[in-house]
Amino acid sequence: MRTTSLLSRLAAPLALAAAFALAPTGAGAQQYPTQDIHFICAFPPGSGADVIVRYYAEKVRPLTGRTVIVENKIGAGGHIALEYVARAKPDGYTVLVHAGSGVAGSMSLIKKPPVDVAKQIQIAGTINRQPYMIFVHQNSPHKTLADLTKAMLEKGEKASYGTANPTSTVVAEIYRSRTGIKAVEVDYKTGADMVNDIASGALDFGSTDPVQALSMQAKGDWRILGISSGERLKATGDLKTMAEQGVPMDVTGWWAAMVPQGTPRPVVEQLNKWFEEVGKQEDTRKFLAQFGGDPLSEPVDVAQARLLKDIKDWADYVKLAKIKPVG
């Protein structure tokens, strides 16, 4: 069974948020920033997430004229960091740099989420978009997605596949439901835990994030058969989408900078400009490509609309994949 730690209950200062929204030209907003800015990372130092957060902290720092401090708020699959930012003063000095798609998914993965993401989180800037991937071991006889599908239909319920998080489960379940295969899911705590079972043949295929999949393919261990985004991305342009191989889907992860709702609009817009500027840099494109992603820069309202759409989409994904919300 998948487990996600339940978050503690919090109350949103909605009246204060509204007051800020109605007074975007206040002195605090005009002078921003006047102190250090804190980027919140939801995972430990040295993790893939931490590398991304620290890269952006270093790139944004010279644009602000202030120190940008990275704080690691670890636990509950990122939810401790999310709650910390939701509780923070809405002044632009506490910024969550995290997977926006994951934040949206939390609304459906927890029975009673104490952070109402739609009402308490504001997207200040988008960072990237990246797909999840269906893969087999390099020694697998299945060279294409069509090969895998045919073999899995023949194998029926004797087939099995590995996943390690809700998004990989969703991608695999969409593949299952739209091809009619009956393969059984084996849910692992981490992607690394499924490596040996893929190598031994105990699993027929797997679904995982681009960081692991691309790394394993580069080492010659895995073969990626399809990606979950609705269109090919520049970073993974040689990889076919699941959709163009006859399995319609568009499940695309994305990262963003997030602040508490009620943060003055000029402050949010300033953050947006900083992240847009970093996203335009060629070294940023190369950096994100390592993680299988393309830069994504969107205006504030477009980015917030992406979050709200993802919240709705994840409600559908959880039902489709029969993921039982915890809590």
Mean pLDDT: 90
Instruction: Give the class-level CATH name of the largest domain.
Output: Alpha Beta
Q: In percent, how much strand structure appears in the residues?
A: 15-25%
Report the CATH topology name of the largest domain.
D-Maltodextrin-Binding Protein, domain 2
User: How many DSSP helices?
Assistant: 13
Separation of the first and last Cα atoms: 13 Å
> What's the CATH architecture name of the largest domain?
3-Layer(aba) Sandwich
CATH superfamily of the largest domain: Bordetella uptake gene, domain 1
Strand order of the largest sheet: 2-1-3-10-4-11
User: What is the H/E string?
Assistant: HHEHEHEHHEEHEHEHEHEEHHEH
Low-pLDDT segments: 1-27
Description:
With 327 residues, the protein is α/β, with parallel strands linked by helices. It has 2 domains: 186 residues, Bordetella uptake gene, domain 1 (D-Maltodextrin-Binding Protein, domain 2); 113 residues, D-Maltodextrin-Binding Protein, domain 2 (3-Layer(aba) Sandwich). It is built from 13 helices and 11 strands. The strands form 2 sheets. Strands 2-1-3-10-4-11 form a 6-stranded mixed beta sheet, with helices on both faces. A 5-stranded mixed beta sheet has the order 7-6-8-5-9. Strand 1, helix 3 and strand 2 form a beta-alpha-beta unit. Helix 5 crosses helix 13. The chain starts with 13 loop residues before the first helix and ends in a 7-residue tail after the last helix.
